[in-house]
Amino acid sequence: MVDTGAVLEKLWGVEAGLGWQGKHTNLIAPGAGSWFFLGELVSDLDLDPDGPPLIDRCGSCTRCLDACPTQAFPEPYVLDSRRCISYLTIEHRGDIPEEMRAPMGDWVFGCDVCQEVCPWNGDLPSGDPPLSQTTAVPELGELMRMDRATFAQCFAGTAVRRTGWSRLLRNVAVALGNSGDSRAVGPLREALAIPDPLIQEHARWALDRLASTLAEARSEAPGCSS
């Protein structure tokens, strides 16, 4: 199994001597950081670990905890998945809680900020980049206009297929609402006509947030009265 089974793979990795579980809860392996998947071979053989568990070497560092956009770490080594952007954009099936939408910024699929700032990752190459803050508003607008067939074609063979068409557009709507860009209004208004309650609800929220943000920006512009 690789990222497919409900097993305590990080704990097993620690017990096997592969690394230690960092404050961001991911397994950190010397020389590899945390940019890797853990794989499991299920067997009925009795196997000895390669060596004793490695000691925790996070020290006093709190970069991962401090950088989390949604403050998903109530304390070191504890992740509240209900606040985790990766969980909310990939695994969560229903409405994204309203209090989480603005802190999500313009992340659309995944996050990994906690790993990006981890000193143990340093200059190590990451895995496939998430659909994230490198995605410009016009590109997000095209995603918002994507139908089911186009979604299936564009993301065939990728991890994005896991979230599904409806939830991806839900995420895109939130990202557009947080963009502060007037070009997002058109795609969001069109999304209101999509016969999917999940997409419609998040598009309405996004339009309301965008209207408020744009109005505030106009009021603060030079020459405008408050």
Structure description:
It is a single chain. With 226 residues, the chain is mainly alpha-helical. It has a domain at 135-220: Alpha Horseshoe (Leucine-rich Repeat Variant). Helix content is 38%, strand content 2%. The protein has 10 helices and 2 strands; from the N terminus they run H-E-E-H-H-H-H-H-H-H-H-H. The protein has a two-stranded antiparallel ribbon with strand order 1-2. The longest helix has 24 residues, at 197-220. Mean pLDDT is 89; it is low at 129-135.
In short:
By secondary structure, the chain is an all-alpha fold. The protein is 38% helix and 2% strand. The chain has helices spanning 9-15, 63-67, 85-91, 98-101, 113-116, 137-144, 148-154, 164-177, 185-191, 197-220; strands spanning 20-21, 27-28.
Low-pLDDT ranges: 129-135
What is the global morphology?
Answer: globular
Average residue-wise pLDDT: 89
Radius of gyration: 20 Å
Number of helices: 10
Largest sheet: 2 strands, antiparallel
Question: What does the oligomeric state look like here?
Answer: single chain
CATH superfamily of the domain at 135-220, called what? Leucine-rich Repeat Variant
CATH class of the domain at 135-220 reads Mainly Alpha
Instruction: List the secondary-structure elements in sequence, H or E.
Output: HEEHHHHHHHHH
CATH topological fold name of the domain at 135-220: Leucine-rich Repeat Variant
